Amino acid sequence: MAKSSATKQAAIVFGALAVGWLAIELAFKPILDKARSAMNKSDPARDPDDVVEGEETATKTDETPKDA
Prior knowledge:
Layout lengths: L1 H26 L1 H13 L11 H11 L5
């Protein structure tokens, strides 16, 4: 009898988690869709911390004062 009670309790907990997950998915659907599409568009091979040689010289010239 204790096993039956534990199984019912596990099923109820699992069902509650599933309903909660679906509620979150539906509530935040627009935000999640934008985030997922941005992740799909991203290039995993490109590291934003790497500086390209052409960009490095362009930023250095932009930072110098005009009247110097």
